[in-house]
Design brief:
about 450 residues; Aminopeptidase; 2 domains; six-stranded mixed beta sheet; 19 strands; binds zinc ion
Amino acid sequence: MSVGSERAVTAESEVAEICRDLIRIDTSNYGDGSGPGERKAAEYVAEQLAEFGLEPQIFESAKGRASTVVRIEGEDRSRPGLLIHGHTDVVPANADDWTVHPFSGEITDGCVWGRGAVDMKDMDAMTLAVVRDRLRTGRKPPRDLVLAFLADEEAGGTYGARFLVDRHPELFEGVTEAIGEVGGFSFTVNDQARLYLIETAEKGMHWMRLTVEGRAGHGSMENNDNAITELCEAVARLGRHQFPLRITKTVRAFLDELSDALGVRLDPEDMDETLRVLGGIAKMIGTTLRNTAQPTMLGAGYKVNVIPGQATAHVDGRFLPGYEEEFLAELDSVLGPRVKRESLHYDKALETSFDGPLVEAMQTALRAEDPIARAVPYCLSGGTDAKSFQDLGIRCFGFAPLQLPPELDFAGMFHGVDERVPVDGLQFGVRVLDRFIDLA
Ligand SMILES: [Zn+2]
């Protein structure tokens, strides 16, 4: 050991490098198993943990589809365990669109740049840095921690979280609560209030195929039962349909907290005004106020002078927790009796309450590092691996603490071009996460 200026390695000092290393492993998930890097990422994670004496296990659900899991013993082993999960795969990136190469992990202008910087190699790196620091300094967590670094989240988790939950549930024995994506990031309201959005709910999804059968025939003939015409009318009705405003308990709790932070009463019936106040995160909140069904694909016909007997469309449907039945009934009434609707892919909605000791721990840990912090619940319009873990009875939260400069468009970073994360945001995150583990 040299003397003088050399400083000890800490979670804060190495988190950006770990994030960079992870970004440099191209873990693009194309949804067909051809992605190049999940195995390498799983091995990298395992090495980082093994360096301090842990014995992580790597599980391969199919060739190259690897996830890493480790359990860290807590002080009180009679307490239920806490799961911290993150996915290691990323959505693909087109290098031509980027300022820096998306897999360079370049650290410049105070940010780590690259695909996965906010979704979610940031949290993977923070978790690794914190756990390494705790092992280095001999600080046990108060209760068992299970860490899971997972493949395949970006394509639905079949080869990652879903596989582990179905085939290796013993890994999560005794675990009752979990944190993961997408939450914990900041939204600065003004100089007295910074909200940290904790994910407590997720919309569910129905991906559907619509089919109309009609009378096939020659294009020169009259036809009052043209499948294309019938389908297009139904699809147009659906595309223009606005589902009614539904304030779920999560959105209501969000509005209450926000009203309190702003010192103004926000009217749930006047969400336009509320969304205006929300600036950059309005997009994320706005889409959790209603069910939605967007037509996304059309198919019919094979020749210009032939009326086909069938026409199809695909629809991406998303429903709020508690409103699935209403969603399907309304959908059918908008589409009408001619349309046959089939489900291609289904995922449930989730919702837990914003209360209890774990939520307190988040609030306290955030407040200790940011005096104007206020944790607020919100509903994610998409889905995460939490949907799989919930099947084991685990109560899941999106909590990957990250303080962001007000001007950074966080929502736009997800799957976006020039995805990047501020280094000081990561350092803030490790301090909060470390405190949180002690309080959890
Ligand atoms: Zn993600």
